[in-house]
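Example (one chain per record):
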Amino acid sequence: MSKLIIVFSGSGISAESGIKTFRDYDGLWENHRIEDVASPEGFRRDPQVVLNFYNDRRLQLLEVKPNQAHDICVGLADFGRVVVITQNVDDLHERAGSQDVIHLHGELNKAQNTIFPFEIVDVTGQLINLGDHGQNGGQLRPYIVWFGEEVRYMEEALALVQEADYLIIVGTSLQVWPAAGLVNETKQGCQCYLVDPNPPSRHSHDITVIAEPASVGMHRVYELIKADQA
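Predicted structure:
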């Protein structure tokens, strides 16, 4: 029977590609206060600032490439079905070749209609400007889950985690809820790995901790699963 391997990734896996992590040491995100660029209130106050912020992030994606950690996620298909559940809004998992990716917090390369939020538009490499409307009217905004908004695909992610034979947590501090709570939902016998150069000192799970950067740590995980299935 094919094994189900879940990779639960956060900003640390993309940091090696040159994408800054969500919060820098000073609590800012690319020199912006989080509440100004990642909340519905911030968008209502100054939509142009918010659009400019995500336009810059979107264009930066064109300048970076997937790294070895992303590649190893694809290679885990040697051992079973791989589903990536990511908190990241970049497309590096897809560009590396991952076929089954769930974005809990949205995607930079998509926009949504503010009036009809189920209308999603591909804006890869493009700008979203004030006055850009969807087919049904309504200003387009970044397809991003902001603070105070409902996390997408949580039920689907939860169902997958509960069936996982392997859960690999890479590049996330496990401090962003409710997504971080997924790690407590695994079935008995699921082998769990946490890859992070600065892992949390406490966690409520039986996890094999690999205190390494994403690429190095994911290589070790690959070898451990390979040995487990030998």
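Caption: The chain has a mean pLDDT of 90.
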